[in-house]
Amino acid sequence: MSRPDAFGSAAPSGRDDEPLVSLDGVEVHFEKEQGLFEFFEEPDTVRAVDGISLDIEENDVLALVGESGCGKSTLGKTTIGLQRPTGGSVRYRGQDIWAAKDGVGDVEIPFDEIRSSLQIIHQDPGSSLNPNQKIVEILSQPIKLTHPNVGLNERRERIYSLLERVGMNPAADFADRYPHQLSGGEKQRVALSRALLMNPDLILADEAISALDVSLRVEMMDLMLDLQDDFDTSFVFISHDLSNARYFAEHGDGRVGVMYLGEIVEVGPAEELIEDPGHPYTNVLRWATPNLALDAAGAGEPPVRKIDVPDPVNPPSGCRFHTRCPEARDVCREETPELRGEPGGHQSACFRNEPDHKYWDSQPVED
Amino acid sequence: MASHTTADGRYDDPTGESGPIIEMNNAKVTYDGGETFVLDDVSLSVERNEVVGVVGESGSGKSMLASAMLDAIPDPGQLSGEVLYHRPDGTTVDVLELSDEELRQFRWEEVAMVFQGAMSSFNPTMKIGGHFEETLKAHDARVPEGMEFARELLSDLYLDPERILDSYPHELSGGMTQRALIALSLVLEPDVLVMDEPTAALDLLMQRSILTLLEELQQKYDLTMVFITHDLPLVAALADRMAVMYAFDLIEVAPRDQLIGNSGHPYTRALLNSTPNLDAPLSEMRPIEGQSPAPVNVPAGCSYAPRCPLATDECREVDPDFYKTGDGHRTACHRWEEARERITLNFETAGDGAGSGGSEGGS
Prior knowledge:
heterodimer; A: eight-stranded mixed beta sheet; B: 363 residues; alpha/beta; Rossmann fold; nucleotide-binding (chain A); transport (chain A); ATP binding (chain A); Peptide/nickel transport system ATP-binding protein (chain A)
């Protein structure tokens, strides 16, 4: 499938039947730095991402939610080829990204092309924009890279029309400013414009709206979704806020994935996942989402047994959530539940979804 | 600038049996020799043992309000007005009149403050326990008893006291450091805790957990709390009363349920409608158009008028005073009745005063 980019030229594409990005059994383990005297000991391993498989299609939206340290950013970066997995494979239109990087086997799509098709916007737009460059200079770079033959005037025209498109009027005025002369929301729009100028197939928005005021978040999400239609991109949207994930996934006709300690514990269409959570942890995130309904406004007790996340160096055995889960029983310590349900639909990893599981005969976990 | 106060400088805030503990009257903060206002004639009283949630967007002046309560405005800002503190023994002091030494004692022992970013509040080279000891010594408190109380506070906050006291700040997660900071702010048993975005930069689950813990602390130690945030739904879970700031001034103050279910200010209603939440129909969440003004060119008249769908010539010319719009509810808007009718709330409030009636769309 080829599609026109901002300049009307066709974007290259690989095999049509392959998903845009496909992750298969991806693991990312980090070794913790060791002191001098621990040199001969086994290093501690942080299991940031542990055995995740998922596909992202064209024009797809995947919203990842979870607590700090659950591995959602690492998973996102692995998806766009910024982080090399320590196990499993990541494919872009059927081409193994890291095989392309290393030049192993038949490389159908060069690594540079893959990297420019997979873009990122960060949480803190302030530190991702060069403070010494005007906006017009920052935005010229991707055009120079992707379209080296485009002249100065046409480049300016492109930049101005894109700035107007993201709501920065008058564009000529904004283009001549430096990043520090922009508000947080405006900087994030520039970061988004810069990503779009690379004609990406997929943009990773890593907590891209978390630093904005609550009242500006809906506006920014609407903008990203509008641009998704215009530019035909997919989004991986990372957030710790289930209500934002719901908004983004529901409007973008995508899925929400819930992560806990390096694993996806539930994935599915937003509304289904929120109305009928299949994992107790999803229920915890639901509780954590503020609600304006007055009868529910009071916080009440959290539906977890411990409020702190366990150390990812030695994740709990069995179901990793068993140390905090209000429903945990002895079997959860020993056996690991798998993602079950309709593939590509609503799936969750909890024994409670299986009416015949021995969970139901097991004793509740005692702290 | 129109004054927002009645002749005697007070509002008809309902005074409970216990009466106010802090009364801020006509507080004004200026920079550049009076040219730039960052707090414009704000009056707010805080009742004993209540939780007041102050909500505003970035740059609305909400942090200045917190700093003004403790006379801690960053230089070279000038604070004028009056901040009265009513001690439990019945005496009253004006915080702005205190000497440096009196202020130093006042700030930890009577009113304590927690800022956002606990990491930068702790000295990275000192263990958490050291911070508790130093604080106790600096205020001539007995250390053994104080540390005993510190341990109790830490376990109230679901922390393992021995482990936390023996850790350096970088060894703890963000949520743990922030809770340790809350414990530290309470170790001298203050009556009032002022918190400025105490849970920002933490994930939602930790934010909500901390709020639950704060509620328990408030009841256990009879605390009065002022909680300042940009996140309206978050503080709604905790607050008894809420105050909304816009462009360096309070624009609406009301009991929590009133503010959420029956607010009279178009800005408050827009803020409520712009908040993503799990139950509102997605199609009805909409952002607030336009931007809030910078401190240098606050418009004449109502500062929200340029963004307000109901603004008339009166709004553009006359800065609205507070109207009494309900029991303990005051709203600085000429058109509050119309706002309630025409700006429909997009969520189910299910409670008293949930009169979001009116069939017309607001914008």
